Amino acid sequence: MSARIIDGVGHARRLRADLSTDIAEFLARTGVQPKLTVILVGTDAASRLYVANKARACRDVGMQSVTIELPASCTLPELLSVIDAANEDTTVHGILVQLPLPAHLPVRAVLERISVAKDVDGFHMYNVGGLVVGSTVFSPCTPFGVQKLLEAEQIPIAGQNVVVVGASNIVGKPTALMLMQKDATVCICHAKTRDLAQFTIAADILVVAAGRPNLILAPMVKTGAVVIDVGINRLPDGRIVGDVDFESVRLKASHITPVPGGVGPMTITMLLHNTLVAARASVDEAQGTKAPQ
Ligand SMILES: Nc1nc(=O)c2c([nH]1)NC[C@@H]1CN(c3ccc(C(=O)N[C@@H](CCC(=O)O)C(=O)O)cc3)C=[N+]21
């Protein structure tokens, strides 16, 4: 068997074309252009690149984006006052604080400052908690992108055995909750899991977000499984690889995402989606057509 390679770039392109149409229609109808504010603290090269990619993606679909760059020495009160200003600015619909933050800044305090209605990353505790009860304002972009990829590939989720490898707050845990909400039987493995293979071999859908190259080898994968690789690792030779040994696992899986070109492009797409949803909600609220969130 050779797996179908899930084309994240193609799925993302189709979704972004739809978003462009929706944004143009929304602008024509309301006069409001959706706007994302990205806050970048420090000068980490990878973060700068990601932020530049997000800004370009916004422009490509007709959204405004503003990047606010703060020095790595920025204090917590300084960062919070920048967030407060974006919260109060009615022309801003989405706010994203690029992670990771410099070590002296407390991540939770920063994320909890973002208005829930503008938390397009879905990282605010209110949105995280919403995943537990199945009613979130914004779903986090990477798990949301994984779910969209599965839907676009018409892969059934209900009743499937889903194994998530990696228990991070931004990928593993929310992915598990979102797929459980879709009636999957979900298991979460992490760095302390004993005998990882005994769990992964049972997976109909294996989602890997551990940040370790070659963590998942072919003998750990069930024949015909759907393998979603969320890992992004830069090797010493500069190559970007996921957490899955792509060349061996593709011979055993039914579907597999490549890295790059799999989940990554969907993450930014769902950020754009969430920003449009935020802009719509803000117009609805201003017109009193919906209860404020
Ligand atoms: N507040 C916050 N929100 C985030 O969503 C967030 C963040 N901080 N910090 C960093 C991570 C990482 N992340 C990626 C998004 C897109 C790709 C992506 O498009 N990757 C491409 C290109 C990969 C490459 O060549 O570098 C691909 O996989 O094909 C990757 C990684 C969002 N993150």
Task: Provide the fold topology.
Blueprint: E1 4-5, H1 8-30, E2 35-41, H2 45-60, E3 64-70, H3 76-88, E4 94-97, H4 107-113, H5 125-133, H6 141-152, E5 161-165, H7 172-181, E6 185-189, H8 196-200, E7 205-208, E8 226-229, E9 233-234, E10 240-241, H9 246-249, E11 255-256, H10 263-286
Parallel strand pairs: 1-11, 2-3, 2-4, 5-6, 5-7, 7-8, 8-11
Antiparallel strand pairs: 9-10
Helix pairs in contact: 1-10, 6-7, 6-10
The structure holds 5,10-Methenyltetrahydrofolate.
Detailed description of the structure:
This protein is of the alpha/beta class. Strand 2 (35-41), helix 2 and strand 3 (64-70) form a beta-alpha-beta unit. Helix content is 42%, strand content 15%. The termini are far apart. The chain is globular, with a radius of gyration of 19 Å. The longest helix has 24 residues, at 263-286. The structure holds 5,10-Methenyltetrahydrofolate. Residues 50, 96-99, 121, 141, 232, 240, 259-261, 264-265, 267-268 line the site of 5,10-Methenyltetrahydrofolate.
